[in-house]
Amino acid sequence: MASPNAFYSVQPAFTGGEISGDVASRIDLDKYQVALLQAENAIVRPYGAVRKRSGFLYCGTCKYPDRKTILVKFNFTVTISYMLEFGDRYIRIWRNGTYLGIEIETTYEAGDLSRLRFVQSVDVLYIASGKYPVKKLTRYSEDDWTFTDISWQQVPYGDLNLDEWNYITPSATAGNITLTAVGSTWDADSIGDWIKLEQNVSGVSVSCGGGTSGAIPIGETWKIICHGTWTGTVTIQVSYDNGATWLQLRQYTSSDDYNPTESGTVEEYAIMRVIVSLSSGSCKADLSAYPYTHIGYARITGIQSSTVANAVVVKALGNTSRTNNWYLSCWGKSHGYPRCATFFQDRLCFAASEQYPQRIWMSRSGDYENFSVDKESGTVTDDSAISVDLLSLRPYQITHMDAGNDLIVLTEGNEWTISGSETVTPSSITPRLQQNYGCNDAEPVRVGNRLVYVQRRGSIIRDMAYAYDTDSYGGYDLTLLAKHLIANKEIIDSSFAQEPDSIIYFVRSDGVLLCLTYIMEQKVYGWSHIVTDGRVESVLATQQGNNDIVYAVIARRINGREVRYIEQLDLDSDSENQQDYVMLDCSARAHFDSPVQTITGADWLEGREVLVMGDGYLYEPKTVKNGIIELEQPVSDVVIGLPYTMILEQPNFNTTVSGLGNIQGMEQTVNTAVLRLSKSFGGEIGPNEDTLHDIVYDVGAMNLGEPCLYTGDKRVTIPSGGFNKNGRIYIKHSVPYPFTLLSIVRGVTLGGTGL
Question: What is the pTM of this model?
């Protein structure tokens, strides 16, 4: 055994965050030098410090105490944002942590909430679910909101009918009609479906020697030929609304010297007629329509039998002849509704229905509720709607879409992109496979030009971004060094708070809230986690002023029953006074113009033992009875709530010892530590959780309720825990004071090789 030797080692920062015990001895890793083995109820600051996280402020109660609730953002302007409480068949509107008293009935049950996808355009929020028709929530004013189905101008259609013997015959070309099929085609779920019929229409002509001719349908090409010797005019008129309005298309003039012959095309189905007006002579004008394939649309309104359906014509049919060239709309009860939604290049995009799990639909450019396709000279126009499939060996369903410079499409088994370097058009769109990991239901988070998402099965969190050197997307497993945080658990929700610390919050299936401080351009990504007296079930970061405020739905046990509260994670203060901090959960802060000794109205904490910070003085625990808390003396400023504990633990001590080589495996004990603190008070320290002593401060100011927060270096003696091979420091902080650790120096005595 070598004689004892003392060594000192500084940990200057904690940006490596929490790492698992499996890598507690990986001294070869750069992140090891700035990591923690535990960071519970702590926040890793991007510039290096680690601090005790702020408390949760009570905002209000969810509508149902026993049913799932999620939170969704609605950003109206830069300064006005709302929080939407989605629950079992309802939406409630909140602003700045206050319920506005507005409740809207919906079709979504509690079990549907995790599958909802949202995308917003100014004052309209589009909601896709895969189970129900796409809905939209519209804000007209702060107290006027509507939740409605979308009245599509046109919908996308699926694949061509494959049964060549199943002809459909319409009873008429316009108005309310019946559609009769040869085979069994319709059922109750068909109501609401759209159908596209392609019919061959023969050529037709009309002649006129004077006056106005009858109207003929023109599907594509028309031609006029005039005969005779005449003086006057021949006029061709066109109508796109079945004769309600006539527009002049051509007019020809002759003085016994001209007989026009001309042909042309129409942009869409129309009817045309010719008017002959003569002052002398005779003229015969022949107006002809060429044969073409007519495309008409109808919407199913009722079912008479499996072969006969009632319908209303949306766009006139060509004739009443039968056709086996028909298409049903992609979206409906029988074949599913879109599951995902986003915007890309001024198009509203949807993806993944039950029948088409790998299909993406994009609206007409700038016309979000119109999925029609137009042609000019036989070519589809660039601003037409787009449908495209991801072509892979396995039909992985699309789970999310995220639009940046490129459109990123995440499926259950792989990740794709659609390039945004050029404008997408029906003839210029090519999905490109990037990775093969898959994504779960938790919403991906965009941070700058990177996308962070939860891998399929919810047990790995990854990021992806474009790399110029490979001309492809790649990324990292962000949980590689912290597998303990999600082992045998699943991530069910996520949200990103850019300000003040660039933190992504992930809700774990057991109610723990994981925190990832993430600034990848600075190589900073550090984990910590939040536990509270209850279960976090949903999280949302929404903009308020210059900061992003984090809200959560938390299930707690209050007065013997389960409740669900909406609570706000308080912003960290920079004050020198402990009274200005909220370091309690399910809490409230209040100011009284005249000091009070009896605090009333604390019903949301009924029956619970709480802590009270009043005028800078921490009172002994109190129990809330009938919403009342009695203090020993009157106070003007007060914070009440439930306590929580921060735990910090360093990984194994390491230093290079001259003549001994690496000290890993050597017996050692930590004797002393220097804590560099900022505005801190309280806490215990030791070599492990079983051997802790209080960190000693000047308690005189605290006992008087005066500001007592400490900034500077605090030298502490570590209680002896005997020799071991770890050399760790363990800090526990359970009192409702702030605690920010900037760096730590360990003084370690080596007792031998231990080998």
Answer: 0.90
